[in-house]
Design goal:
Helix content is 75%, strand content 0%. The protein is an all-alpha fold.
Length: 153
């Protein structure tokens, strides 16, 4: 049952607004609890490290999906109508160059916010398992679709 619940929760994180709401709720909800540490360099460092770890986990799972988007068979089989990136900043089917260029902006924002408000880093790290699972599932579905010999009708 727990596996099914985690699967349903990670599937819900395909929605960009649900992810944003989670980040906001965790960041704002935990800020009053950790305010006493504000100004302590280790507190701010922990936020930076949490944000960097969350970003790394997100990138590790997103890159295979972006590579799949850029395969010629992806468009030939009509998978571009089914699958796409949900990030407003990245666009629906970014190339690897677009992904790197545009994600740098997101990374700088997250790392800066995580350094100043460490709860943003904690929130991003808390959402990373769901993002990772969702990206891996989508990557596997795309690869299975690309490997199948059955043409879409």
């Amino acid at each position: 049952m727990a596996q099914g619940l985690f699967g349903r929760v990670s599937a819900a994180y395909q929605n960009y607004f649900i992810r944003t709401a989670h980040l906001g709720a965790v960041a704002l909800g935990t800020q009053p609890l950790t305010n006493v540490y504000f100004g302590n360099p280790l507190y701010h460092l922990s936020g930076f490290v949490s944000g960097a770890t969350g970003l790394a986990l997100d990138h590790i799972s997103t890159i295979p999906v972006i590579r799949a988007f850029n395969k010629p068979e992806f468009r030939e089989r009509g998978l571009n109508e089914i699958y796409g990136e949900s990030s407003v900043v990245l666009g629906k089917h970014p190339t690897m160059q677009q992904y790197v260029r545009r994600s740098i902006l997101i990374d700088l924002f997250v790392l800066g916010a995580s350094s100043f408000f460490p709860t943003v880093g904690y929130a991003y790290l808390s959402i990373s398992p769901m993002l990772n699972r969702n990206n891996r599932d989508i990557s596997q579905k795309i690869e299975a679709s690309l490997e199948s010999r059955i043409e879409r009708t």
